[in-house]
Amino acid sequence: MSGHSKWSTIKRKKGATDAKRGQIFTRHARMITLAAKQGGGNPEMNFALRLAIDNARNVNMPNDTIERAIKKGAGEGGADSVQSVVYEAYGPANVAFLIEGVTDNTNRTLTDVKQALTKNGGSLGQGGTVAWQFARRGVLSFPISAKTDDLELALIEAGADEIEVQADMVVVYTAPDSLQEVQKALSEASVEVEDSEITMLPNDPVEVSEDDQGRVDQLVEALEEVDDVVSVTTTMSA
């Protein structure tokens, strides 16, 4: 359960960091471009693209910026050079890191990620050394309301396999291919989803000391400063 709460913490923290650095639109545009490239430019036929567009709109990205990103992914503007990258690493207290990015220059991104790791007590691992400690999950959240309790059965029937009620929101976890149906169930109940994505979460979050937690957080922040990095997930519990 603590690892699940970490998703919400990282989401809020990363959103604030991105906004402060003025990089949020660039990152969302890259996610839209990649989704359009991989699954086509029609969001009605490409759920990953629809997710990327919805998340971009949640941060008030202008429609013309969204449209340009879609067109680029659909074949205009050199989209063939855009690709996803995943790096596996270890940080302080042997905490595992999974670093995901979208880039048009893999050499640049690798160099920047290595530099952030080296300067903050981390090291790049070989492929497969870390990934097994994570699982890809569908995750969405919505604000708590009077109808929250009534939604549980509908969400489970739609494919939710865990529902976590926090102080001011509900976080729902699904298999990746069930996320769309869970979103549909919420839409039919007139519930507005605050955030929704398919992401990596730790299988078994680990507790670390307060000092080590500070060092891990510092490394997370350094990696998020890399322009091409769009997600940093660790095995550290919240």
Annotation keywords:
four-stranded antiparallel β-sheet; 23% strand; Alpha-Beta Plaits; 238 residues; Arc Repressor Mutant, subunit A; single chain; alpha+beta
Write a compact overview of the structure shown.
Helices cover 46% and strands 23% of the residues. By secondary structure, it is α+β, with helices and mostly antiparallel strands.
Walk me through what this model shows.
- This protein has 238 residues and is an alpha+beta fold.
- The chain has three domains: 2-81, Integrase, N-terminal zinc-binding domain (Arc Repressor Mutant, subunit A, Orthogonal Bundle), CATH 1.10.10; 88-128 and 207-234, 2-Layer Sandwich (Alpha-Beta Plaits), CATH 3.30.70; 133-202, Alpha-Beta Plaits (2-Layer Sandwich), CATH 3.30.70.980.
- It contains eight helices and eight strands, in the order H-H-H-H-E-E-H-E-E-H-E-E-H-E-H-E.
- The strands form two sheets. Strands 3-1-2-8 form a four-stranded antiparallel beta sheet. The chain has a four-stranded antiparallel beta sheet with strand order 5-6-4-7, sandwiched between helices.
- A hairpin with a 3-residue loop joins strand 5 (160-165) and strand 6.
- Helix 6 packs antiparallel against helix 7.
- The chain is globular and about 50 Å long.
- The relative contact order is 0.18.
